[in-house]
DUF2333 family protein (Pararhizobium capsulatum DSM 1112), 400 residues
Amino acid sequence: MLDPIVTFFQRVFAAIGRGIGLAISWILTPFVAIATWYRSRAWIIKGPIGIFLIALFGLYGYFIWQTQAWTNFNPDYVDRYNFAARKNDAGLPTKPVSGGAATTANANTTTAPDASTAELATAPAPAPGSTCERSAIVDVSADLIDFNVNQNAWISSMLLYKTGLFGMDWDDTPWLDNKASFQRGVNQAIRRTTVELVDSLGRVRGTSGINNNLQRARSNMQFDETAWYFGLDPFGPKTPTPSFYRSAMRDLQAFNESLIKCEATFDGRSDNLIEFLDRIANDLGNTSAMIRERSENHNGGWFDTRADDRFWFAYGQLYGYYGVMAAAGADFQAVITQRGLDPIWTESIKQLRAALRIQPAIISNGREDGWIMPTHLATMGFYILRVRSNLVEMRDVLAR
């Protein structure tokens, strides 16, 4: 009775085996033909080809290693700054002035619970020989650049990443693109921050010019993310992307050195913080819209090859803003305390950190009402919207 059923399944599995064998044979046929041709050549031809193949395999080995090794990746990286120990807001004097009177952030900005932005902007000028508090936002931004291009290789401008898989963009495949997307997300947070440092935080608007170090940092951070040593448009040699970002890092560090000497400005007024929060909220809103579009229109589950790009870009953006927002809490502590924002600010930082706990091995873009394949994109979108909601609420409180 069971013999026909057993025979049927034997035939099915045999057909599947033959199909797999034919597929593998079809894939390997060109490689076998090339190997046969190579063996029949003289050494004067074999030698250069062999050297080229060894170099190619070496490059691919290095490329694969760099895409998989996330050096110094640490969702708790903010802890090492110990922002809670800071006593002064960014840019304000920290060293006692002549006569023994100390000029600190608290002395300048907490004289009344509802101190106006004008009062915050007219703090006494530092006395000769004083030192001023460095900007935590600038420190974190410079360190994130260092993490992206010095501690790790910048994947997006590597030659083998640009050439793709047999001409197919790596972003269109499920392999070797997660780190590149993550780095671009971190880079997006840095770019947004450098723009705000130039436009508002690093100058007293209407009364001072743009800081040259910050201006150069912003310009360098806007450079193309995919530039290699040589390009076709325009044709000729180029400076690769990491070199520009390293220059931006040095410019940010130079700004902080000037700030320590009280030779630069960090304008820690509440209206500047409002604008900063508004810009970050808008940036996260754009990412939320990108995730929503992918989640709603391309629910391919584990087979959506672009879901991982969206997920890791958003993850990198939150990774960057986690540090930037924690640093902003230190740079604007007086404003935050005066306006009663400490509880919601702390909650926002916790939510940013909570989002970084999501680290699935394979990103799935399943239906939101599905029960087989998870929906990691929708989950990430939920965290982004929570953070953005808190940013909008804090902005509204400051604007009252």
Summary: The two ends are 83 Å apart (CA to CA). The first strand starts at residue 230 and ends at 232. Residues 75 and 259 are 28 Å apart (CA to CA).
